[in-house]
Design brief:
Helix content: 25-40%
Shape: elongated
Structural class: alpha/beta
Radius of gyration: 25 Å
Strand order of the largest sheet: 5-2-1-6-7-9-10
Number of domains: 2
Number of strands: 19
Order of helices and strands: EHEEEHEHEHEEHEEEEHEHEEHEEEE
CATH topology of the largest domain: Rossmann fold
CATH superfamily of the largest domain: Formyl transferase, N-terminal domain
CATH class of the largest domain: Alpha Beta
CATH architecture of the largest domain: 3-Layer(aba) Sandwich
Strand content: 25-35%
């Protein structure tokens, strides 16, 4: 039986803890949990424990919520005689004096193929960059951020597949990737903890490292008159959980694009293109249709976008071949201060 102290805070971290408690209890004993202090949540500022703390309390596991790491906390952790400290999205810097406590070491589950995307937003950053592949890494914690020796890596395909098994050119969204990676990560953590001496450390190549930071709410803003379909897809998949993507309409209202479909069938694309041409070049005098506008076809709503992979240097009003026109279906949107609307 391996003993661990689990460090984590948010909901997805609590899912890993629950997995250890419910499905690994005959192999792994969680002897303690370290999580961030309770926070005031919502408009009423209700003091709320972290998702990890809530899971730990239901299982009567000792919980530590330190504001700082000191000798007293380290003494309390040492008494528990853990073989490993396991970290999944703890969210606070851990000092070396704490890292060094467990007999076998302190290890972190990270959602990228290190040394790529060290830092706070590895999944979002990979999606935003249009990566086709990512994965999880289990590495030994050291003082330098996400730089320790790697013991396990598991690759993961970021691309969607359709019902016939064909691979799409568009990625899965952040939520889908996150769910899959957590399932992969928790199983690999179980293998690692229970069969520790079968795995060997591989040093990271710092020359190949990249770093990703936290995103801001404003990062979700898109300009439909200039963004390409490909770039919109990258932002949509990367920001699906948070902050979402949004644009400002002509009334300067913030409109959130909640659900989009990027794969438009060829026959629908042809009909939309015909409709776009009819509106744009009617009588060749009034150009009332432009990039960023919306079309309705068969009770479905589409936004007109430019495909930047096609080079056409002519002014918009002169470009009549329309090879660089693309469409994205809008399934659900929400105007600021209003309820969301499904088309």
């Amino acid at each position: 039986m391996k003993k661990i102290i689990f460090f984590g805070t948010p909901e997805h971290s609590s899912r890993v803890l629950s997995y250890f408690l419910k499905e690994c209890s005959h192999e792994i004993e969680v002897v303690g949990v370290v999580t961030n202090p309770d926070k005031h949540i919502g408009r009423k500022k209700i003091l709320t424990p972290s998702a990890v703390k809530q899971v730990a309390l239901t299982s009567n596991i000792p919980v530590f919520t330190p504001d700082i790491f000191d000798v007293n906390l380290n003494a309390d952790l040492q008494v528990l005689c853990a073989d490993f400290f396991i970290i999944v999205a703890y969210g606070t810097l851990i000092p070396q004096s704490t890292i060094d406590i467990p007999m076998n070491g302190t290890f972190n589950l990270h959602f990228s193929l290190l040394p790529k995307y060290r830092g706070a937003s590895p999944i979002q950053s990979a999606l935003l960059a249009g990566e086709k592949e990512s994965g999880i890494s289990i590495f030994q914690l050291v003082k330098k951020m996400d730089a320790g020796d790697v013991y396990i890596q598991e690759k993961y395909n970021l691309r969607n597949t359709d019902t016939t098994g064909n691979i799409s050119k568009y990625n899965k969204n952040h939520l889908e990737v996150f769910d899959d990676m957590i399932n992969i990560g928790k199983q690999k953590l179980r293998e690692f903890i229970t069969d520790f001496y079968s795995f060997y450390p591989t040093p990271q190549n710092d020359k190949q490292a990249s770093v990703c930071g936290k995103f801001q709410k404003s990062d979700g803003e898109v300009d439909l008159t200039s963004i390409s379909k490909t770039e919109l897809a990258k932002k949509y998949t990367a920001y699906f959980i948070w902050p979402g993507i949004f644009y400002f309409n002509e009334e300067l209202q913030r409109v959130k694009l909640i659900e989009l479909i990027f794969e438009v069938p060829h026959d629908v694309h042809a009909e939309l293109l015909k409709k776009y041409r009819d509106k744009k070049f009617n009588n060749f005098s009034k150009y009332d249709m432009k990039i960023g506008d919306f079309l309705v076809f068969q009770k479905k709503k589409y936004v007109v976008l430019r495909d930047n992979s096609v080079i056409d240097n002519r002014p918009d009003s002169e470009s009549r071949c329309d090879k660089n026109i693309e469409f994205v279906e809008i399934i659900e949107f929400q105007r600021e201060g209003k309820k969301s609307v499904r088309v």
